[in-house]
Amino acid sequence: VLVRPDRIRPEGGLVISVSDDGEFGVIARIISRLPSGPGVLLGPGDDAAVVSVPDGRVVASTDLLVEGRHFRRDWSSAYDIGRKAAAQNLADIVAMGARPVALLVGLACPGDLPVAWVEDLADGLREESALIGASVVGGDVSAADSVTLAVTALGDLEGREPVTRSGARPGDQVVVAGRLGTAAAGLALASEHGARAMIDVSDGLIADLGNIAEASGVRIELTAAELPVPTGVAEAATSLGVDPLSWVAGGGDDHAFVAMLPPGTPHGFAVIGRVVAGVPGVVFTDAAPLGLAGHEHFRS
Amino acid sequence: VLVRPDRIRPEGGLVISVSDDGEFGVIARIISRLPSGPGVLLGPGDDAAVVSVPDGRVVASTDLLVEGRHFRRDWSSAYDIGRKAAAQNLADIVAMGARPVALLVGLACPGDLPVAWVEDLADGLREESALIGASVVGGDVSAADSVTLAVTALGDLEGREPVTRSGARPGDQVVVAGRLGTAAAGLALASEHGARAMIDVSDGLIADLGNIAEASGVRIELTAAELPVPTGVAEAATSLGVDPLSWVAGGGDDHAFVAMLPPGTPHGFAVIGRVVAGVPGVVFTDAAPLGLAGHEHFRS
User: Could you tell me whether strands B40-42 and A148-156 are parallel, antiparallel, or unpaired per DSSP bridges?
Assistant: First the structure.
C-alpha cells in the first residue's frame, strides 16, 4: 500500500483526515469535546437542540467565516479560529443585552482536512463559549472545497429589554469596553449600567457608531484624545507611518463593545464621547484621526 | 467603458452583481423581501434578532447547503434552492415536535453572482417559511468562491415535551407523513397524535429509523409492502431496472417525517411497521427492497 508523504506525521503514525473518519465519525469526535453547560436541555445528537430561555424571548444571530476572507489556515491555528468564531457571535448576543446560552456551528471542509484540525477548532469554540457560560449545542458538517464556518449564537434576555441601535438619546455618554473579558463587560454595560444602545465593534468604531447615530436619529460627538489605544498598537502604527487612532477608530474586527449610557451613570469604562441632538452622524470634537477607513465585504 | 458580454441582459440593461451592490446594498435588498411574521419581536438590521418563544425552551438546528454538493446553480433555480434550504431546516424543528418560528440565513457567494439570484433565493426562503408561519429574521452575507447557505431554524415547544429519537417503545406503530404539507403533518403527529419518537427523513428511511432504534433501544419491523411509493417513482425506477422500494427505503433528502405512535392512536397516516423489543435495528417482515443504500457525506 502506498502512503502519500503528507499523510505521515513527523512523530510517526498517519494523519487521519475527515474523509477517513466519515461524516458520522467526525461528528462523534466533535461532540465528545463539547460538553453541555447550563441551560442546555438537549445537546447535540438529535434533529435539533433544546435550549432554555426562561425569558420567553430568544436572541439569535448568525455569522459566516470563510477561509481566505476571514481567516487563513496558514496564519491562524484552528483553536484560534474557533475562539474568534465563537467570540464574534457571542458578542452579537451581548450587544443586544442578552446572556449568551448556546452556539450552533456549521462546518464545511475538504475531505483531506486532518481531524486534529477539527478537534482543535472544537476546543477553541468550547473554551471561548465557556468564558461567558455558553456551550455548543449542535451543528452540521459538510464536504466543501475550502473551510467555511457558520456560527449561530442564542441568548436569553433575562427580563431586560433588548439594547438595540435606536436607543441613544442626547445627553448620553459614549463608553467603550475593551478587549479583555469583553463579553462579560458588555453584559455588565447592559444589565448594570442600563445601556440605551449598544453594538459590538466589527465594522470599525466609526462605522458602527454611524449605525447607532442613524438608527437613533442623533449626533455622536467623539473626542479623539479619549480613544483608548491598546498596548503595542501605537508603536506598530507609528513605525508604519500611520496615525494609531485611525486604526482604533476605523479598524474592524475588534469585538469591543461601545454603548450609550444615560448621563450620570457610574462607570468603570472609557468615556469617549457623548450623544447630542443634531443631524445623525459621527463627528470628532478635536482633530479626527488621519486616513480613517471602514470595512465592507465585496468591496476592499 | 467596456462591458463584459455576460453582463448584458437579453431583455436589455445590465446584470447587477452582488459586488456592484456591495454587502450593505445586498443585505438591504434581501431584507426588503423578508417581512417579519408572528413571533418576531425584532427582525433583521440589528446585532441580533429577537424571537418570541413563550414556552421558555427554544429548539434550534443548523444545516449547511454547499454548491456542487447539495445543489447546482445550473440544475436548480435560486427560488427552489431557497425553498429546499428552508424546508429541510424547518423539518428538523418539526421533528422535535416544535412549531418553527424563525430562520437565520448565512449566504456566502461570489461577487459576480447576480443580485436577482439572491432575490429569488430570498423569495424561496420566505414562501417556504410562510407555509408553516415562520419567517427569516436575520443572517449574514459574505464573499466566497462558491455559494454556501447556512440555515438555522428556531422553534417553540408550546408546552410539549420534545419528541426525541429515544422515545420509541415496543408496541408503537411506525407511521410516515409524505411530501405534501409535510411540516404541518409532522406537527400534527407531534401535537395531536402524541408521537413518542420522530425524525425527518434526510439520510434515508432505513438509516434514520436505525438512529431511532439505537437511541430508543428497540427493534423496528417494517413491512415493505406498506411503504408508500410516490407517483412517478415506480415508473422511473422500473425503467432503470431498480426496485422502487429501494429508493423509498434507502433514498435520502425526502424530508418526510417518520414517527412512532403509541398503539391504538387514531391516524390518517401510512402505517409502515411497528416497534418491538429486541436487538436494536431495522428489519423487514417481508422481502427487503433490493439494493438498499444510505447516504453519508465525505463517503459516496
Answer: unpaired
